[in-house]
Amino acid sequence: MRRRLIVLTVALAAFGVLGLAARAEEPLDPADPAVQQCPKLTDEQREAVKKLMQDFRTDIKPLREALKTEVQKLRELRRDKAGAEAIKAQLEVVKAKVQAVRARVQKLRGDLKAILPPEVFQKWQQRFHARMQRFLDNHPGLKALRERLRDRGAGADAAP
Fold first, then answer.
1. Which of 21, 65, 67, 91 is the most exposed place for a label (fewest CB within 10 A)?
2. Helices (H), strands (E): how many in the chain?
3. What is the DSSP code (8-state) at residue 108?
4. Whether the model pTM is above 0.90
5. How far apart are CA 121 and CA 135, in angstroms?
6. Any idea where the domains of the chain sit in the sequence?
7. Backbone phi, then psi, for 28, in 5-degree steps?
């Protein structure tokens, strides 16, 4: 049971990160009201953000592909009923890949926070979270899994 929970947790993290990375590659729609409401940036800020996003897309693509490959290997191990040690070892590989993607996303956030004025950065974060919520809404199985894991974690925290 514990192994299954760990696998589900890692899978959830992997899918969330993959979704986040996929969403980051989508260009912003100028007709989007959220984009139109965004405070105007200076040309220097706009160019700096553009370069950051290009660098992020370049960096995240191989990380995302590697994560996708490792998650597929984990699925195959589970499907083939591989031994616990093999699954555990693959879980560690997947966790490392998830951490690499998260670290890159955190770097992007830090870089954007340094470039953008606070109110613009706050709006960017709100749009970022809204996009992530839309992703979860479009993948109800992932959302349900996330909620189940959150409920289990809350139950475990409440236990003495």
1. 65
2. 6, 0
3. H
4. no
5. 21
6. 2-25+42-151
7. -75, 140
Q: What is the pLDDT along the chain (160 residues), one digit of tens a residue?
A: 555 555 555 555 555 655 555 555 555 555 566 555 656 778 888 888 889 889 999 998 998 899 889 888 888 888 888 888 888 888 888 888 888 988 998 998 899 889 888 888 888 888 888 887 887 778 777 667 667 767 766 554 444 4
Q: Which of 64, 92, 85, 87 is nearest to 74 (CA)?
A: 87
Which two three-digit tokens encode residue 106? 């955190």
Tell me the three state secondary structure of residue 26: coil
Q: Tokens standing for 149? A: 């894991």
Hey, what are 107's tokens? 């770097």
The answer to whether 89 touches 70, Cβ cutoff 8 Å, is no
